[in-house]
Amino acid sequence: MTETGKGKGRLTRRARLMRSARSIAAVAVVLSLATPQAFAQYNGMSMRTGPSINVGPRININPNIRPHVGHDGYDRVRPRPRPYIVREYDDGPPPDYYDDLPPKQRKKNQPSKSAGKKKSAPVAADDTYVAKEVLIEIAGNPTEAQADQIARRHRLTRVQSQNFSLTNSTFFRWRISDRRSVDTVVRELVAGGNVKAAQRNNIFKLQQNASPAAAKSEGDPVQYALTKMRLPEAHALSVGADVTIAVIDSGIDVTHPELAGVITGTFDALNNGEGPHPHGTSIAGVIASHARLMGTAPSSHLLAIRAFGSQKSGAESTSFLILKSLDYALAKNARIINMSFAGPHDPAMERGLAAAAAKGIVLVAAAGNAGVTSPPLYPAADRNVIAVSATDQSDRLFAQSNRGSYVAISAPGVDILSPAPDGKYQMSSGTSLSAAYVSGVAALIIARNPEISSADVRATLTSTARDLGPKGRDDQFGAGQADAFSAVSAVTPAPVAAASDNASSR
How confident is the model at residue 74 (pLDDT cuts 50, 70, 90)? Predict the structure, then answer.
């Protein structure tokens, strides 16, 4: 036996194990000699023996048995654990594997409960459409029984419906109450053959970046866009009198001094009582301001249409709400529809815009603020829409502005001073503002000659634009920056008699 300095006077663990092994061996020898015959042979004597007594089989030492010292100091015999091989995707060693380790080592080496389990990466939610909703178009004006039959057949719950006179159809917004995906339900509806069309209820977002640090509540603004677009000179020829522009946007502060007297109609597609919003108020102001600021078409009439509600990520709307807004704009005889928002391609909206264009309505939209890598955004990329990109005070393209062959024209859209709710003002940037400027110039053209077609309005805007960037048309600026004075000057005024007749008819 050996002793250590620290454990002096006590047996080492190795010595204790050896002693325990010798003890077990000695017991085995004694038991092996326990029969009477063996006892007699051992003493060298021959003696008569009585009946044999069965004491059981011989005890052999199991090589897999080893002594084990418990926490109470007594030796115990425990089986040696089987070797454990770790394999991929295994749940870990047997529960008792770590029992033979000292407490500290056992706690250190034992895996956590989550060991061996693969963590799945979180799936990002798709924010381009409304989850668990589907938009369905049915020809004509179906009865309640017809609609309910389709809903029962496809296990859907009706949320809302709207008859759209332009396409002679009715749109239904239905909710999916089970675990089917939106695209699965769309395929089922189309395959069923009882609907004209079915699609996602897509989400659209406003295209403006407010700059609170540069916001001003009062003072004389510096509106560089007036000079860039030669608006004061254009206003000598036209101020957009009596031209109705529908602004499909977030809530507009109709009480703002800049907009006094220009709001001739309001429509709340959301119908939830939400108040005015900075984006909608700003867009309306760029078009028709006439107090401290100078709007593009200060004598135009605005339809304030609220289709966008406030969300954490900004004001948003859906296909269904925008279709309702388009229907209202057409019912109120809007000549121009400003759409300062962007989103994915939408078949239902495409049909609605085509119907509006066929009625001679000028459609203007923001190209989008998703930058150079973005795919085309809608409704700007629609063939019936005038897509507008944004420029800054130095005639450079707004860094976040979308590019593409669908861009028709550009206009100022960086650091634009415009109205804000509660009688305030704000500085903002984005293609939303650029679209509003072009809508205003379109109003100047139409007021100059009310008989002009929507195709001629587009041709006038692009042919008179001031070329920027590479010579000729390009994917950044389109035909160039809108020039209000050149555009209005290029339009032949309507005869005075015709203008008087139009005025009396109204």
Answer: very low
> Coil, helix or strand for 229?
coil
pTM over 0.70: yes
Q: How many domains does the chain have?
A: 3
Buried b (16+ CB within 10 A) or exposed e, 303-322: bbbbbbbeeeebbbbbbbbb
Q: Which residue has the tokens 């005015």?
A: 276
Q: Please give the backbone phi and psi of residue 351, each rounded to the nearest 5 degrees, phi first.
A: -65, -40
Residues with active-site annotation: 249, 279, 432
Parallel/antiparallel/unpaired status of strands 386-391 and 407-412: parallel
* Domain around 70: 13-45+57-103
What size, in residues, is the chain?
506
Tokens of 29: 């020898």
Cβ(373)–Cβ(437) below 8 Å: no
332 and 209 in a single domain? The answer is yes
CA 215 → CA 28, 135, 226, distances in Å?
Answer: 97, 40, 19
> Which residue do the tokens 């799936």 mark?
123
- Is 442:337 a contact under the CB 8 Å cutoff? no
Share of the chain above pLDDT 90, in %: 62
pLDDT at 120 over 90: no
The phi, psi pair for 309, rounded to 5°, reads: -110, 155
Q: Report the alpha-carbon distance of residue 225 to residue 270 in Å, rounded.
A: 33
Residue 123 lies inside a defined structural domain of this protein: no
Average pLDDT over residues 383-395: 97
